[in-house]
Specification:
It contains 9 helices and 18 strands. It is α/β, with parallel strands linked by helices. Helix 5 packs parallel to helix 6. The structure holds flavin-adenine dinucleotide and FE2/S2 (inorganic) cluster.
């Protein structure tokens, strides 16, 4: 089996430490898996050093197997006692569908780089609204928890298409002073979009200091427009296509306040009132044909592909 290369940055007292380790051991072993729907699933993998270094708002770049694409995934949770990192993944294309098929308990990811990106700024705010749309519900959770730990009054707003897609309700309720679920079909909570939840929170509270919104670009754009007239600081987490994750390739270029930024090193968090979301959405769609082709080819050959290696007692 090939050695696993990991690079874990530790943010300690303002410094960034880059720690490398190589070898097999139990690093990146998948110790839990939960399926939230036909396309959304959670994996929890072991890496004590990474779990210690992780901060809310950061992401990792995952190489599920030796020959796969490297894909960025947000750290949805981390447990320093158990030494684990949790990812919530939506199977939208070749690599994520491969992971959905292969990432079972006992299997091992080939490589993970991280934590990457600038950690979210958890300032001392009085009242904060943490908004997650669809899959964005998972990455906003560590921020909601961190704000709660910092003493803030936390209002959680999550949006799903319908009741059967809802996940982590208990986790949010445990860290939120108020919690609003919005569903498109009204099968649970408010019937409507997260922006309806934001409007109702703003009506009820005239002292909101900050809104954090994570989800599909259109949802983050609409959330920023909902808060703009009220001049409430609004932070979004951008998800442009990333390649190297080090600020070298330019793949993740985004426009913020008319200036070019690289989401992998300058973000992924940015001021939602200054982001050019139309540019982001255009750039996200530029490889659609290649992505469709990759899924088609993979589907034809997936039965021949090798599953991820399983951990053994020897490591
Ligand atoms: C900082 C960041 C955090 C992210 N966190 C999560 C997460 O927690 N869970 C999750 O399911 N997804 C997350 N994504 C998106 C995830 O990386 C893509 O869905 C994944 O790369 C798609 O790969 P694919 O081969 O399955 O699909 P493809 O068919 O290749 O792509 C499907 C769509 O995903 C996007 N995409 C493709 N390649 C990349 C790439 N290299 N980088 C970013 N986006 C890409 C494009 O919009 C594309 O249309 C995140 C992206 C970024 C940038
Ligand atoms: S991913 Fe290459 S510059 Fe950000």
């Amino acid at each position: 089996m090939c050695p696993i290369i990991t690079a874990a940055k530790e943010h300690q007292a303002g410094a960034t430490v880059l720690a490398h380790s190589a070898g097999t051991g139990s690093a990146f072993e998948i110790v839990a898996r939960e399926d939230f729907s036909d396309v959304t699933f959670l994996i929890e993998f072991t890496h004590p050093q990474m779990a210690r270094a992780a901060r809310p708002g950061q992401f990792v770049i995952v190489l599920p197997h030796e020959h796969s694409e490297r894909i960025p995934l947000t750290i949805a949770d981390f447990d320093r006692d158990r030494g684990t990192v949790t990812l919530v993944i939506q199977a939208v294309g070749k690599t994520t569908q491969e992971m959905q098929k292969d990432c079972c308990v006992g299997a091992r990811l080939f490589g993970v780089v991280g934590p990457m990106g600038v950690p979210s700024h958890i300032g001392s705010v009085g009242k904060v609204v943490c908004v997650g749309g669809g899959l964005g519900v998972a990455p906003v959770f560590p921020q909601a928890r961190a704000f709660k730990e910092s003493g803030a009054y936390v209002i959680g707003i999550v949006g799903f298409r319908s009741r059967d897609l809802v996940f982590w309700r208990d986790k949010f309720e445990s860290v939120c002073d108020e919690f609003i679920i919005c569903t498109n079909d009204g099968s649970v909570g408010i019937k409507g979009l997260v922006t309806d939840g934001i409007d109702s929170a703003i009506k009820k509270h005239d002292d909101i200091d900050e809104v954090i919104a994570i989800g599909p670009p259109i949802m983050m754009k609409c959330s920023a427009e909902a808060t703009r007239p009220h001049k409430i600081r609004t932070t979004v987490s951008l998800n442009p296509i990333m390649v190297d994750g080090t600020g070298m390739c330019g793949g993740c270029r985004v426009i913020v306040d008319g200036k070019q930024k690289f989401a992998c090193v300058d973000g992924p968090d940015f001021d939602g009132h200054k982001v050019d979301f139309d540019d982001l959405m255009n750039r996200l769609g530029r490889f659609t044909e290649e992505e469709k082709l990759a899924v088609r080819k993979w589907s034809e050959h997936c039965h021949q592909s090798e599953p991820l290696p399983h951990s053994t007692a020897e490591g």
